[in-house]
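Listing S7. Sequence submitted for prediction.
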Amino acid sequence: MCGIVGLFLKDDSLSPQLGGMLSEMLVTMTDRGPDSAGIALYGASEGSSFKVTVQSDDPATGFNGLAAHLSAATGSPCRIEEKSTHAVISTDGDNAEKLVAHLRDAHSALRIMSTGDSMEIYKEVGLPKDVAARFNINQMSGTHGIGHTRMATESAVTTMGAHPFSTGADQCLVHNGSLSNHNSLRRRLRRNGVHIETENDTEVAAAYLTHRMNQGRNLGEALEDSLDDLDGFFTFVVGTKNGFGVLRDPIACKPAVMAETDQYVAFGSEYRALVSLPGIDTARVWEPEPANVYFWER
């Protein structure tokens, strides 16, 4: 069943409240998926800095001495901020490719959640309220973000099976539904050099959009393309460094509602996810049309 939320701020004065608002929206959707939960948050870019969010089942061991090791291995300074089972590794932008390659080759016990200069992803098995509290999401600021609480149907209940999925720098996707052609599409994308780690159908959708954007399409155009290439039923909410997109399949059997004011654009699987937002009483509220791309960019 799953629950999805998303919030794209137009008014920067709300930025300090992003984590708190998004967490409250997601907790409201708990009964749509109690298996696992996750949130992607986009903050301001820090010049030439690049960051990788990683997860460890044993953070006391996995993160011990990691900053010094990565700095020596890559030849560039790496800094680490630990947050429970996750850690955000920061380095210079020109060290990005070497850092990610080294993590995959030499630190396979660390799971890469996200890469980029503005996005961080936090996800774990458990209820939204527990996941949000574990990573202190309420205190995080930013420009936009998306969240998901999962009822597993296509793969095991694991951290790597939780949403959001990220397959490109500052790109992520959450999904309610099921794709019927994800196995054949996964094979095709891997042949084209797209990195896909799990057997989850949602990661295939994220990878498809990454592949299309790497070919020069923007987010809105890539979502349009997916209507021809993805089979199944789905509601997607997608984030990029500057963008926020929503798409429902042509049948649109999965629930969705949106709201827009001068301050924000918001998405929820149900209206109750939006009721605590400021100015919701006077917002333009609507149900996204089937096979229609909704796309905002900063």
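Caption to Listing S7: primary sequence and predicted structure tokens for the chain studied. The chain has two domains: 3-44+127-297, 49-117. The longest strand covers residues 171-179.
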